Amino acid sequence: MLQELFDEVYIPKAVFEEITTTVKPFSDSLADFSKTRIKQVKNKVALSILSHELDLGESEAIVLALENNISDILIDEHKGRRIAVLKGLHPIGTIGVLIQAKKKGYIKSIKPLLNELLQNNIYISKELYKYSLKLANELCKK
Q1: Which of 25-29, 107-111, 118-122, 138-142 reaches the highest mean pLDDT?
Q2: Which of 2, 28, 90, 91 has a CA between 20 and 30 Å from the CA of residue 99?
Q3: How far is the C-alpha of 98 from the C-alpha of 79, rounded, in Å?
Q4: Dihedral (C-alpha) 26, 89, 47, 100: value to the nearest 10 degrees?
Q5: With contact defined as beta carbons under 8 Å apart, do 53 and 82 qualify?
Q6: Element (H, E) at 129
Q7: Alpha helices in 20-55 (DSSP H)
Q8: CA–CA distance from 58 to each of 31, 55, 78, 130 (Å)?
Q9: The pLDDT of residue 142 is above 60
């Protein structure tokens, strides 16, 4: 869906290594999708500074977006999103991607995908889960 929703998709090397470890769900399909999209960060100083605040994958994603004048950045962790906004970027999380995909007709419902994320030990607060369903017009009214 990422390639349908966005003009270009770059994967920082550290993110590629994170998502393609064999213990991660869907690591094989993620590796196939990602291997031609890996991009190296050039500004090692900026990377070093950000790495004091964030993990390497998030740091590389922010620096890569800044280096390539890309405003949209896929990042889920709260602290990383906050820093991305401070750097003038527009962070979109996994759930935001799912909502966009539904609005554009690529998927019918986000609820089963949210449940799959939860089953794969991805933390989603009850409030965010409910709010996401509301944004996707899937919240049942009682």
Answers
A1: 107-111
A2: 28
A3: 21
A4: 0
A5: no
A6: helix 126-135
A7: 27-34, 44-50
A8: 18, 6, 11, 26
A9: no
